[in-house]
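Hi R.,

As promised on Friday, here is the backbone we talked about, encoded as structure tokens. Could you run it through your design pipeline when you get a chance and send me back a sequence?
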């Protein structure tokens, strides 16, 4: 997911996205461990999307703390 699309989401929607991506990551890792899938590319993109979403939440948190 692009950062621009993530910026359009509210904090609650971002939290939901984070939860969903974390669950998907866990499922793919479990499938890889059992040999059911080779979702390395999907796992990599999910991890990057998770990082983007967490970064946006942290940016918003810091903006509120500094009163901008």
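Update: got your reply. Pasting your designed sequence below so it's all in one thread:
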């Amino acid at each position: 997911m692009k950062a621009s699309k993530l910026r359009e989401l509210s904090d609650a929607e971002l939290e939901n996205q984070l939860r969903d991506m974390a669950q998907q990551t866990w499922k793919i890792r479990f499938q890889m461990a059992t040999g059911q899938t080779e979702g390395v590319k999907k796992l990599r993109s999910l991890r990057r999307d998770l990082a983007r979403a967490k970064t946006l939440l942290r940016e918003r948190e810091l903006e509120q703390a500094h009163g901008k």
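One thing I noticed while checking it: Residues 40-68 form one domain.

Thanks again,
M.
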